[in-house]
Structures are given as structure tokens and as C-alpha cells.
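Subject: design request, 249 residues
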């Protein structure tokens, strides 16, 4: 308790305490429907995403052409935000990145980046188009998006193992990092269908909301599907005291 008080006193005297360190850990992205995606990430969040990049590089010594799936246990944990922000951070450092909206039940990347939804994953799965024909440019250099496409009339048919295998194989030839935004693993089996063809999975968990039993169940389902779960992103983590104070303790 004494050390905490001393840290608070030192922090109060520090007039250069950065405002962004007082904010929750949450990528500040405008998620209003049809509003353009704006990258505005706090210093702490930027460091976290850089840490994620380095962690994945250590697991994938040669990341070129690697496919990573980002998935949550339930809806609303911020998976799309994490994928979009991480992809943008990668692209800003010169990496070639492709975001793929594999959440065909509730796609959102086209809204976030104000891009036409038609012509995307659905069409690729059905073999109706080529990857280069559905790669959509963004205002960020090196960052491309493949939207969800037109909703398939038969989702099970579109997500057949043969269709997924063919699509993933073609995606690997087009970018260094391929990031899939997948639907919640505890609510649908779609993400599990993708597991056999990807290089690894990152589980997104919302801080102070997702129960550990729910996250554990998601992890177990991914393990059963034989995917490499590289780790967990704790999204929307709140700092109840400033980050600078944590560092002084």
C-alpha cells in the first residue's frame, strides 16, 4: 500500500503524464455503420499491437503467405476491430496485408472501411471469381480487403472443406499476412471449418466481460479442430490506474 501511495505521488508530480495512458486499452476506431475506418490508437495500444506482431513472428519465422484466423468465443468481443487495427498497424510498417472477412453471417469489414460488400469471400468459395478480382484497395498503403461478398443461399455448401481449401491456397499467393475475421467459435461451426487450412489462430477475449469458462470452451473447440492457437488478445482492457503508475510499482 505504501509503494502504491508513493507511486501516486510521483505520478502526480509528473506534468508530462500522457493523456492516452489514462484511456482504456481499446483501439479507438469509428465503428458507426458506413463510416470510414480511422486509425487512432493510443501509445499503449500501439505497443501492444507491435508486441503481437513480434510474438507471431517468433511463432512463424517466415510469415510470408501465412494465414491467421482471429476469432472470439461469443459475439461482440471486438474481433473485427482487432483484425482491422492490427492489419493497419502491420501495413503502416511496410508489410503486405490482406484482411479477409470470413464472417459470412455478420460481415462488418466493408462497413468499417466504406467498401462495397459484393464481390468477396462468397464468390471465391463458389469459384465464381479470382482473388485479384475481389482484392479491394484501402486508403492505407499495402492494405487490401476481401469483403464477405453476397450472402450465400447455402452457407454449408459454400463452406465445404474443398471450397475452403481452394480459397485459402489462392489467398496465400497474394500477400505476406492474410488475416481472417471469423465468426464466434462457440456460436457457429464456420471457424472450425477453416481450421484445417490455416496456419494458426488468435483468440480474442473481451476484458471484464467474457467468463473464463466461455473462453476455455472456445479454446477447447479450437484444440479439437487441430488448429494452432497462438495466443489470446485481451481486448478493451481497462487501466484502473494510469499505466505510468503501474511502471513505478
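Subject: RE: design request

Done. Sequence follows.
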Amino acid at each position: 500500500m505504501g509503494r502504491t501511495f508513493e507511486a501516486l505521488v510521483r505520478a502526480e508530480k509528473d506534468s508530462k503524464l500522457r493523456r492516452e495512458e489514462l484511456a482504456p486499452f481499446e483501439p479507438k476506431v469509428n465503428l458507426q455503420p458506413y463510416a470510414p475506418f480511422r486509425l487512432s490508437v493510443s501509445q499503449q495500444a500501439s505497443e501492444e499491437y507491435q508486441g503481437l506482431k513480434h510474438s507471431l513472428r517468433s511463432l512463424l519465422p517466415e510469415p510470408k503467405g501465412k494465414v491467421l484466423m482471429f476469432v472470439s468465443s461469443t459475439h461482440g468481443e471486438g474481433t473485427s476491430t482487432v483484425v482491422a487495427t492490427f492489419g493497419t498497424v502491420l501495413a503502416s510498417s511496410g508489410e503486405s496485408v490482406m484482411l479477409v472477412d470470413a464472417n459470412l453471417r455478420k460481415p462488418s469489414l466493408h462497413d468499417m472501411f466504406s467498401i462495397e460488400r459484393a464481390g468477396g469471400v462468397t464468390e471465391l468459395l463458389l469459384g465464381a471469381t479470382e482473388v485479384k478480382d475481389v482484392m479491394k484497395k484501402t486508403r492505407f498503403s499495402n492494405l487490401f480487403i476481401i469483403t464477405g461478398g453476397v450472402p450465400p443461399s447455402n452457407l454449408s455448401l459454400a463452406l465445404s472443406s474443398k471450397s475452403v481449401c481452394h480459397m485459402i491456397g489462392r489467398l496465400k499467393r497474394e500477400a505476406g499476412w492474410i488475416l481472417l475475421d471469423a465468426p464466434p467459435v462457440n456460436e457457429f461451426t464456420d471457424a472450425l471449418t477453416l481450421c484445417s487450412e490455416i496456419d494458426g489462430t488468435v483468440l480474442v477475449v473481451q476484458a471484464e466481460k467474457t467468463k473464463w469458462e466461455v473462453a476455455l470452451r472456445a479454446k477447447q473447440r479450437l484444440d479439437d479442430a487441430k488448429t494452432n492457437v497462438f495466443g489470446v488478445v485481451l481486448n478493451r482492457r481497462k487501466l484502473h490506474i494510469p499505466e505510468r503508475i503501474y511502471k513505478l510499482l
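The chain has eleven helices and seven strands.
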